[in-house]
Amino acid sequence: MANPEHIDTEVLIHGGGMVGLTLGVALAGAGVETVVLDKADPDAQLAADHDGRVSAITHGSQQMLGAIGLWDHMAPHGEPILEIRVTDGNSPLFLHFDHRAIGAAPFGHIVENRHTRQALHAVAARTERLRLIAPCGLRALSRGAARVEAELDDGTRIRARLAVAADGRHSHLREAAGITVTTWRYNQIGIVCTVAHERPHGGVAQERFLPAGPFAILPMTGNCSSLVWTERADLAPAIMALDDAGFAEEMSLRFGDYLGRLKVVGGRWSFPLGLSHATRYADTRLVLVGDAAHAIHPISGQGLNLGLRDVAALAEVVVDARRLGLDIGSGAILDRYERWRRFDTAMLLAVTDGLNRLFSNDIAPIKLVRDLGLAAVNRIPPLKHLFMRHAMGVIGDLPRLSRGEPL
Fold first, then answer.
1. Which residues are 278's β-sheet partners?
2. Where are the domains of the chain?
3. What's the pLDDT tens digit per position in 58-106?
4. Domain spanning 6-79+108-183+275-360 has what CATH number?
5. Residue 215 banded pLDDT, cuts 50, 70, 90
């Protein structure tokens, strides 16, 4: 048997999904020796039927992806979000955002997750100082005062200055570190599919609040839209079990006919919806990013963007510390990252949770108040512009990458 390989690196990232691999590209592109470890087979992740979801890439996230060389690969597959229309059931009152009111840039772009993954793997393959090891699991990780040491399932041993948990909402590294999580399940299931329609969508994203939860219609390239349908957990299995005709009928009742004839294309997927938030984002030479640190309701389409802001902030503090000759895995460096990210995350968690609870009912007095609220925001330009800038991801203490600047 050959001797196991020994690798010395600066950062070890556990999890090669969209957040973990983006962090790897950002760090390695700035000269930081980085290893990304993922137990999933890249070929399976890149398959067309792996995941039917899309992500709304905000303008701020787009600037970050452009700064690290990813956006050029994603742009041909992205559909600009030019307008956002928010309605409450069949109420005539609504909230309408138009990107032209605050500048020339779209609010963001809708990109299929598979295209984002393809871009990531293409760029990662040619990024110096980045090594992706997949598929391979992590057998053990020890974290000491000076470094971390990992043993992989194939016997490979890795030494690094910092370990990053990018291994999802059920993070093994977070659990092993004893970091607790505030979590609860919504009584909701998210149903995702792609719908082809007769008329063009015009780059308009629709968010319709129905009693069971939000029903989002997101513009994709061509005459297609991605449907993110929140349904009651007790009803969703029966809807998913319908044949194509029955599913299309249920979908059309909620979708409406404003885009003409509709047809579901490709598969259907469903996901349980919940919220989670780690009590802390760091431990000895360990830091959490993405869903390992937080997971939110898809009501605002901000889940991936929240993780990408983690990437931008962590990459900045690590690269700045390294340039100053500091220990990139020290408690002071990781504390800076946590302070930077916790407020933004906690605020978005509270807003998305509150909106979901406020709108996922059909109680008449509450419905009247929220409809009047939508109409009021729509008629107050300063407040409306603030909401639009939030939708673009350009509010707050932004890292350099989120401003489109290099590390």
1. 181
2. 6-79+108-183+275-360
3. 999 999 999 999 999 999 999 999 999 999 988 888 899 999 998 879 9
4. 3.50.50.60
5. very high
Read off the pTM.
Answer: 0.95
